[in-house]
Design a protein that fits this description.
The chain is of the alpha+beta class. It has one domain: Beta-lactamase, CATH 3.40.710. Helix 8 crosses helix 9. The longest helix has 20 residues. The chain is globular. The chain starts with 9 loop residues before the first helix and ends with a helix.
Length: about 400
């Protein structure tokens, strides 16, 4: 693959995005209903200066898809149908499912401590694995520092290009996090930390003797027939077709082609998987329908704690074990998880009964706070409208 840098000013990008085409939704048998609504909301996300948008919604009446914008800013090719995606932190739901399957098999307990399973790994600088349970890891109530701040301390394009090929072993990432004291005593508060799921992956391997990747393939991907989902580790290239990703590192800076990922981030159980919207929808639908977990373990997964208002999540969001609950404007709420990286955001959400499931991918990110807020609002509205419709 030839890597292209795209240097556009924010003003030029806004002008370019405003003229990007939409691609008609395939929404039979109701193109004037749900299909029209999804395409309208995909276009709204594009109009918020996202270069490429793709949506896939499963409903009791069939599948609705929509695309808007372009697949890249150089050729202006269309956003591909069911293109390959970097799943980012959506990987965490797969990993949590494997851990809960092991709980259902009585091989581990959610109340076991990290120290019992990984002796000496979480220690130093006030960190104590004896006080942190598996439940704390899966629910982000461990208080452990997020290693992301250590591998990307300077938010700049220069840092991205200088370090994007670097890779770390899980033990190295945890060791970086251990250089910092905990943010709070385990179990007392909530704060998102990728370190939690690096440890969860290590625990899966310790308990089963096989890597978390192997367990995800054997327990989830193969049984569900998710042939377009993979665990590529630090492999930097997405299969074709895929949409290019663009990151603006400073509010007045250029947009940078970040289709090649920053490998120090999300290289393991916290976010390394790739896949397609079709496969993601199948996974979350199967999870909601009870095909992957026994009732007791699925109930544990959905037992959630409040997420702070300043966490960037919608008001009323609660976090379970690798699965968020978010209220809907029409009542009740949805189960889901998101993932992001430099230049891309992905969200998958399903109604509690699994009857409606949607995956949205947005392929550029702005550093301007107002633009970023408009993009987030448009994305949330799309999901809310897609899941609240009754047709």
């Amino acid at each position: 693959m030839i890597f292209r840098r795209v240097w556009l000013s924010a003003a030029v990008l806004a002008l370019a995005v405003s003229s990007l085409p939409s691609v008609a939704a395939s929404a039979a048998p109701h193109p004037s209903g749900t299909g029209w609504s999804v395409q309208r909301d995909a276009d709204a996300l594009r109009d918020a200066e996202v270069t490429g948008v793709a949506v896939r919604l499963e409903t009791p009446r069939g599948t609705v898809t929509a695309r808007s914008g372009v697949g890249d800013l150089v050729t202006h090719r269309p956003v591909p149908t069911n293109g390959y995606l970097r799943l980012g932190s959506t990987t965490k739901t797969f990993v949590a499912t494997v851990v809960l399957q092991l709980v259902g098999e009585k091989r581990i307990s959610l109340d076991q401590t990290v120290e019992q399973l990984l002796p000496g790994v979480v220690s130093g600088t006030g960190n104590d694995g004896r006080t942190i349970t598996i439940r704390d890891l899966l629910q982000h109530t461990s208080g452990l520092s997020d290693y992301n701040y250590d591998v990307f301390p300077d938010p700049s394009a220069q840092t991205y290009f200088a370090n994007r090929w670097s890779a770390y072993q899980p033990e190295e990432l945890v060791a970086l996090a251990m250089r910092h004291g905990p943010d709070f005593p385990a179990g007392t508060r909530w704060a998102y930390s990728n370190t939690n799921y690096v440890l969860a992956g290590m625990i899966i391997e310790k308990v089963t003797g096989r890597t978390w990747e192997q367990q995800v393939h054997d327990r989830i991907l193969r049984p569900l027939g998710l042939q377009q989902t993979d665990t590529p580790g630090t492999k930097p290239f997405l299969p074709h077709p895929h949409t290019a990703n663009y990151q603006q590192f400073t509010a007045d800076g250029p947009m940078v082609d970040t289709t090649i990922p920053y490998r120090p981030f999300d290289s393991g159980a916290d976010g390394s998987m790739t896949g397609t919207a079709r496969d993601l929808n199948r996974f979350f639908t199967a999870l909601a329908n009870g095909r992957l977990l026994k009732p007791a373990e699925f109930a544990a997964m959905r037992t959630a704690v409040p997420v702070p208002q300043d966490s960037g999540h919608p008001a009323g969001t609660r976090d379970g074990l690798g699965l968020f609950f978010t209220p809907l404007s029409c009542g009740d709420g949805y189960l889901g998880h998101g993932g992001s990286g430099f230049g891309h955001v992905i969200r998958t959400a399903t109604t509690a009964d699994g009857r409606r499931t949607v995956t949205v991918s947005a392929h550029s990110r702005s550093a301007d706070p107002q633009t970023a807020a408009r993009q987030e609002d448009a994305l949330r509205n799309l999901i809310d409208h897609a899941l609240c419709r009754t047709t």
